[in-house]
Amino acid sequence: MPVGFHQIFRYALLFAIAGAIAVSAASPAPGKPTGKFYVAEVHGSAQIYIKDGPIYTLAPKDVYAAEGNEIVTGSSSSVTLVFSNTTSLTCSGDTRMHILKFSQQPLKPNITDLDEEPSASQMQVYIDRGTVSVTTPNLAAGSSCTYFTAQGQIAIRDVQAVIQVQTNETIVSMLSGDASARSETLDGGVHLQQGQQVIMRNQISGQPEPFEVQSIPTAQLVQLTALALDTSMARKMVYFAPVTPGLARPTLTGSAITAATNAKSADNSASNGTGSVFDENPAPQPSQNLQPVPLVPANLPVQYTVSPARIGG
Asked: Are 70 and 99 spatial neighbours (Cβ–Cβ below 8 Å)?
C-alpha cells in the first residue's frame, strides 16, 4: 500500500523534532556562543522547564540558555522574550512552547543596526498550544526560523506574525514579511504574504477544508497588530553583546548606535596582532559568552525643576 503524503509529513516532522532534541543535548561547537534569551516582560505567571532539570518561574531581566527548554504560561498571562539573534516572542495565556533548536554563529565585533541579525542562526520551535507572536530582524544569509505545530510547519523570514494553536487547527497571520506554510494535507505548501492568514486543520470528515488561505479578517486585525507591535517593541529594549577576551564589546545607545568606537577598537586589535574576525585564516577563538545589555535612550528626557515659589498655596 503506497504511503500517503500526510504519513510522510508526520514522519518528517517527527524526525525533525527528534533531530533537534538530539542536537540540543550537545554543547555548541568551539567558538560558537550558546544562544540565549532575555525575559523582557512578564504578566501573570510564566515558567521555564529546563531540559532534564528543574522548573523556574520567569521574572523580568532573567536570562536563560534557550535550546531544549520549554516555556509555559498560565491562564490570562503572557511573557515576552528577546533572543540573542534579536528575535522577540510573546507567549500569550495558556501557551506551551518548546524551543527545539537555537544555534548561532559568533556575533560580529560591532553592531550597527538592531534591525539586522547580528549573526546567522537556526531556530526551531514547537508550539503545543496557545498563541505566539513573533518578530524577527532581517535574518542573515544562512539563517532559518521554523515553527512546528500538530497541523504543520511555518518557515518565516523578516516578519511580524502571530501563530495561534488550538485543539484541531493552527492559524498563522502575517502582519508583515512573508513565510511558507506546509501541512500534512497540502502537498508542496503555500507562500504567505503580508495581510494573509492560513488556517491548517486536522483532516476530519464533515469539517471545513483542512487548508485555507484568506485575508486577515478585519475584526482580528486590530488585536493581532497590537500584539505584534508590543512584541516588536521588546526588541528595542535590549541587545546581546559577546564577552570574549580580546574582542571589542559593541555599544548601543537607543536607536542611535555608536559603532565608530567599536570599529576603531577592532582595527587596533588587528594592527596589534590580536586578529580579526575578517582574517582569512583567523586563530581559533574561545566560545563567546553572550550577555544582555539594556538599551539607554539616545536622548534622555529633560528633567524640569519647579521652584516652590511658583506653586500656589
From this structure: yes
In angstroms, rounded to a whole number, what is the distance separating the alpha carbons of residues 13 and 308?
A: 69
> Selecting from 3.40.390.10, 2.60.40.10, 2.60.120.1440, 3.40.50.300, what CATH number does the domain 5-238 have?
2.60.120.1440
CA-to-CA distance for 82 and 92, rounded, in angstroms? 15
List Cα–Cα distances, 224 to 87, 134, 151, 175, in angstroms: 18, 11, 21, 8
Cα 17–20–22 angle (5° rounding)? 110
Distance CA 19, CA 21 (A): 5
Torsion of CA 224, 226, 227, 231, to 10 degrees: 140
Give the model's confidence band at 38: pLDDT under 50 very low, under 70 low, under 90 confident, else very high. Answer: very high
Phi/psi at 261 (nearest 5 deg)? Answer: -60, -40
Query: What are the angstrom distances between the C-alpha of 148 and each of 111, 128, 152, 171?
Result: 31, 9, 6, 12
- Res. 225: pLDDT tops 90: yes
Which pLDDT belongs to residue 244?
57
CB 23 within 8 A of CB 102: no
Distance, CA of 269 to CA of 66 (rounded, Å)? 31
Query: What's the pLDDT at 4?
Result: 44
∠ CA 114-72-163, rounded to 5°:
60
**Cell triple for 39:** 525575559
Q: Say what the pTM is.
A: 0.75
